[in-house]
Design brief:
The chain is α/β, with parallel strands linked by helices. The chain has helices at residues 39-49, 60-71, 93-104, 126-139, 160-166, 171-188, 211-220, 246-254, 263-274, 291-306, 325-339, 366-382, and strands at residues 5-8, 54-57, 79-85, 113-119, 143-152, 198-203, 227-232, 277-283, 313-320, 349-353. Helix 1 (39-49) links the parallel strand 1 (5-8) and strand 2. Helix 4 (126-139) packs across helix 11 and helix 7 crosses helix 12 (366-382). The structure holds flavin mononucleotide (FMN).
Length: 383
């Protein structure tokens, strides 16, 4: 395999040749998954990979074997492209096995940087599958470039703007073009470390009672050598995005401003612009980011019009009282990594469950996990 790009294109095997505990018999699924579901994605993939040495695996078992082989190479592969065809129903049996493999082997993708192509025959499930896969692979050690996803919805209408920018109304051509650029970005990704790292920490929590904020303070205590700027976005300091017309947003964005002005323009934009990474302090509120943090992301759009964030990493501390940290993590992945182009370092989020004020700091093993997360930030920013 050498320095080749590793391409993982899960495809359900219909003839019972799987190893492991699950075997599907030919008579149950005569044609396996409908073969047609792969046709469009394979054509896009072939065009994006033309002239690029790559090693293609079609099953979770195949990935496991390829990774074992890769570890023995003098120059191991360190880039991975996932290509998932979801068909009409949004289900790909072998993809589910891939998730299981990654969740059972939390270091399997250490050292890899990834991107993904997700193709469907309906308008649904491509984005939700993509965030599920990125979250799972990230927990298994895989970093992701900013804008790691190219998705083909059934109609391809999600390529309207990209096609217009290319001066064509050929949506499939825009799909091919986006996939080609994404693969090049993956291969050319230069890595991350910075000489004098700066971290912007965004929160909307009470210093006194918040579990999430308490964990940030503990993590922050181990980050000497990294310049950390904390910005609080509580209680009406931030209005949500007004959804100005595109040209008006662009006009403000070019001056690194926004219709509403205020703390976002005066404090947050300059801090994010100067930072090498942002850390989001996220309590789980109704299985979502809190309103103030969502407003921050929406208002980032004006700055994003002027410059993208490929050179900035995203970290998060997420605390749920009961459950659902993965949902909040996936929301951050979709909004900031997939949409706003922040780099996603391996294991970008610390995920904890605690409800009563102060209880997060009393969780068994919490000191070690905070130290480990701080070390992850240091490794990413300082190399
Ligand atoms: C408005 C609100 C909504 C919440 N929704 C959820 C929820 O959907 N799921 C959950 O597990 N915990 C939920 N919680 C509990 C918090 O996630 C929990 O208190 C946790 O410790 C993080 O919040 P904190 O940093 O403010 O302490 C909610 C708390 C509030 C105040």
């Amino acid at each position: 395999m050498g320095e080749e790009l590793l391409v993982v294109r899960p495809e359900e095997q219909a003839d019972g040749q799987w190893s492991g505990e699950t075997r599907i018999l030919k008579e149950d699924f005569p044609a396996g998954e409908d073969r047609g579901r792969y046709r469009r994605m394979d054509a896009v993939l072939a065009s994006a990979l033309a002239g690029i040495p790559h090693h293609l695996v079609r099953t979770a078992d195949g990935l496991f074997r390829a990774l074992a082989e890769n570890r023995g190479k003098a120059v191991p592969a360190d880039r991975i492209l996932f290509a998932v065809a979801l068909g009409r129903d949004g289900i790909n049996g072998e993809y589910t096995r891939l998730l299981r493999l990654l969740r059972q082997n939390p270091c399997l993708l250490d050292g890899f940087t990834g991107a993904l192509l997700v193709d469907g025959e309906s308008e649904l499930f491509t984005k939700s599958t993509a965030t599920e896969l990125v979250f799972t692979a990230n927990c298994a050690g895989c970093a992701f470039i900013g804008h790691p996803l190219v998705e083909g919805t059934g109609s391809l209408l999600n390529f309207r703007v990209a096609a217009k920018n290319l001066g064509t109304d050929d949506l499939l051509a825009a799909y091919r073009d986006s996939a080609g650029k994404m693969v090049k970005n993956l291969l050319n990704f230069p890595g991350y470390p910075s000489k004098s790292p700066r971290l912007t920490v965004l929160h909307a929590s009470s210093h006194r009672t918040s579990n999430t904020f308490a964990l940030w303070r503990k993590v922050g205590g181990s980050l000497s050598g990294i310049a950390c700027e904390e910005i609080g976005l509580r209680n009406g300091t931030l209005s949500d995005c007004a959804g100005c017309p595109y040209k008006m947003c662009l006009h403000y964005g070019e001056k690194e401003s926004c219709f509403y002005g205020g703390v976002m323009v005066e404090n947050v934009y300059p801090s994010v612009r100067a930072a090498d990474a942002i850390l989001m302090v996220c309590p789980n509120y109704n299985d979502a980011l809190s309103a103030n943090l969502t407003a921050f992301i929406n208002r980032l759009t004006a700055l994003y019009r002027k410059r993208q964030f490929y050179d900035k990493a995203l970290f998060a501390i997420i605390v749920s009282g009961y459950s659902g940290c993965d949902i909040v993590a996936r929301q951050l992945i979709a909004a900031l990594n997939m949409n706003k182009s922040f780099y996603l370092p391996p294991r970008f989020a610390m995920l904890e469950t605690a409800n009563d004020p102060g209880s997060a700091l009393r969780l068994p093993g919490i000191d070690g996990r905070c130290a480990e997360f701080a070390e992850n930030i240091r490794r990413t920013l300082c190399g």
